[in-house]
Write a structure and sequence with these properties.
Layout: H1 32-39, H2 49-72, H3 86-96, H4 105-117, H5 125-162, H6 171-180
């Protein structure tokens, strides 16, 4: 009968990474399952529904923060659909490069509101309220109205000349609404200063 060949025992112990000896014929190759088990990292599964909900909320919050930072940095890929496109970018830069009367609408409205709350002396209170209500407020409203009409008309004309293939739908209203906002509260943030110079990068 033929003898069975004796099987040589193989060392299954893992090979240290910093082993100075090269792996050759005199040293067995680590088994695949051992190498894979060392590469695997434990995955923490949620213990219950509350834990799963907490992890989901944390993931969503991190994603929103990443998106917010990208938008503040000017990455148009993360902008809402209403802010995308060269026509909208042109409208934002055109409005941001100018000081328009309509951008002072909100501060002026707050000033009028405060003026009505101040406890003026009885002898001058009627005069101040009359001046604010019958003179200041109407003048501001007329200025805002004419500015908005002018900005919308001007923007449609400029966009049609500069981007003839772009749709003009909503671009005038978009520019007029941006012109009503306080500069520091505009979003996306302005990339140009009044006068047309680029906004310097933040340090």
């Amino acid at each position: 009968m033929l003898r069975r060949r004796s099987q040589t025992s193989v060392d299954d112990s893992p090979v240290p990474i910093d082993d100075p000896k090269p792996q050759g014929k005199g040293r067995p190759t680590p088994k695949r399952r051992d190498a894979e088990s060392r590469r695997r990292q434990p995955v923490t599964a949620p213990k219950d529904r509350k834990e799963a909900y907490r992890q989901s909320r944390a993931k969503q919050a991190a994603e929103r923060e990443r998106t917010r930072k990208a938008m503040l940095a000017g990455d148009e890929r993360y902008y809402p659909a209403r802010d995308k496109g060269p026509a909208r970018k042109f409208a934002r830069d055109w409005v941001d490069s100018r000081r328009l009367p309509s951008q002072y609408f909100l501060p002026f409205s707050l000033l009028i509101l405060l003026a009505t709350w101040v406890p003026w002396p009885e002898n001058i209170r009627p005069l101040i309220l009359s001046s604010v209500i019958t003179i200041g407020w109407p003048i501001m409203m007329v200025g805002v109205l004419f500015t908005s009409i002018y900005v919308a008309w001007r923007m449609k004309r400029l966009v049609s000349e500069k981007y003839p293939d772009e749709s003009l739908r909503g671009v005038g209203f978009y520019a007029a609404m941006r012109a009503l906002q306080i500069r520091k509260l505009r979003f996306p943030p302005p990339t140009v200063l009044p006068g047309g110079k680029p906004v310097p990068p933040k340090k």
